[in-house]
Amino acid sequence: MADSRLRLGDEVAQALAEGRAVVALESTILSHGLPAPSNLEVGRELERIVRERGAVPATIAVLDGAAVVGLDDAQLQRVCDPANSLVKLSRRDLGPALATGVAGATTVASTAAIGHAAGIGVFGTGGLGGVHRGARETWDVSADLAVLAETPMTVVCSGVKSILDIPATLELLETSSVPVLGYGTDRFPAFYLRDSGLDVPWRVDSAKDAAEVIATHREHVPGRAGVLLVNPIPVEHEMDRELHDRLLAGGLAKLEREDVHGKHVTPALLEYFHTASEGVSLTANTELVRSNVRVAAEVAVALAERA
Ligand code: PSU
Ligand code: MN
């Protein structure tokens, strides 16, 4: 990405130049995943968590024709204010948004791509996009998977939501040669739930061990695949299974009733979950992101210490 279109915040630029730990954070989770005004509180808190662990946060969005890496507080407010109607930007949308000056929030795909272009290697978020149910007919597979297949970025998340086809998502990650590491778990997490019922191929039990695997993957394995480090939601915040199953059924029915497709599926479902659970899913969502961002910061620090 040409320098004129990539704008690094001062603190991020300095940390990268000095080889210090930096953690990328996405903005779609703020603009499209969490309701205002808690989105701004969460956005600020995630940055605070990264700092507490000794790393520098770099929240990413597209503003005024540039990919901004390390939003300042005014920019964070702009992203979080629903009145500004930020567009959800996947990687394919970056060229048009940058060229036309449209303001947008970045997904896992576009955050990973921009973060890597800026020189960042670790990214903490909530859930990864994946293969949607019914993808055999709709071909709806998140670009998050294709980007992770060719972008050397470690994404720390709580797996993917059970609104997706989880077995198919894991198959595609294998096809893409993306290592999937369970963080203190042998099971692939399903966002609100700690266990999707599927195994992870590899497990690590500390940030230091994760950093060792990530560094070895980057340095010694041919190709440009990223790494997926999956961290289950903290036990005390895991959603009740019955509530979860009820929300899932209700959400899928709503999508069908209202004929929701494509990029609107994930935001529509999240909104339904937050409303129908009267905030239970919002708390779960917030807590798992906090936990993932903490792990991401610890891994980034371990990688920086190793270098
Ligand atoms: N999952 C969540 N919250 C989110 C998203 C996914 O629990 O906010 C967002 C992320 O930005 C992710 C994107 O990259 O949705 C995937 O969307 P799609 O399936 O349209 O590619
Ligand atoms: Mn899609």
From TrEMBL:
Keyword entries, A-Z: Glycosidase, Hydrolase, Lyase, Manganese, Metal-binding
Gene3D superfamilies per the UniProt record, alphabetical: Indigoidine synthase domain
Record-listed substrate binding positions: K88, V108, S142, A143, D144
Reactions the enzyme catalyzes: D-ribose 5-phosphate + uracil = psi-UMP + H2O
Pfam families, alphabetized: Indigoidine_A
Class of this enzyme: lyase
Active-site residues, as the UniProt record annotates them: E26 (proton donor), K161 (nucleophile)
Record's keyword annotation contains Acetylation: no
An MF annotation (GO) of this entry: hydrolase activity, acting on glycosyl bonds
Enzyme Commission (EC) number: 4.2.1.70
Binding-site residues, Mn(2+): D140
Cofactor(s) of this protein: Mn(2+)
Cofactor stoichiometry and binding remark: Binds 1 Mn(2+) ion per subunit.
Domain of life, source organism: Bacteria
Subunit structure comment from the entry: Homotrimer.
HAMAP family according to UniProt: PsiMP_glycosidase
Family per record: Belongs to the pseudouridine-5'-phosphate glycosidase family.
Purpose: Catalyzes the reversible cleavage of pseudouridine 5'-phosphate (PsiMP) to ribose 5-phosphate and uracil. Functions biologically in the cleavage direction, as part of a pseudouridine degradation pathway.
Name of the protein in its database record: Pseudouridine-5'-phosphate glycosidase
